[in-house]
Amino acid sequence: MRHTKLLKLTWVILLLTNLYTPCAGAEFKELSAAEFITRNTAQTLIVDIRRPEEWSKGGVIANSKLLTFFNQQGHFDLPDWLSKLARLKKTKETAIILVCASGNRSKRVAKLLSTKLNMNKISHLKNGIKGWKQQGHLTINPDLKL
After folding, report:
1. Which strand (E) or helix (H) includes residue 57?
2. Do residues 125 and 139 touch, judged by C-beta distance below 8 A?
């Protein structure tokens, strides 16, 4: 229990330090559906940050990893989320594409990861799953037995 509190405090200090320290940071990219398809390789990690009820309702892009970022109240646990993300990444240099419903949440998270935490190779799907489906691309039913 004490170790968990210390770990969370460390992450908060690191995040606040990055928030208030001027730095160039890495840049993130907004991807159209066509760019998403082009950049999506076997080495790419697609992370759908929506909540389980959204996955069930709208489906997910094939090969997505389901990792909720914001809860129903709009809160998040960055240290916990980052530790789960680290387990999904194949290598330190794995490219990550974030997906949400409309592109708003994934853009916020991409900005946080790239500019505040200096993570490289971060992108997000502009217009999210809604835009993806409007352009005629398919989704699949998620396997929620996580």
Report:
1. helix 52-58
2. no
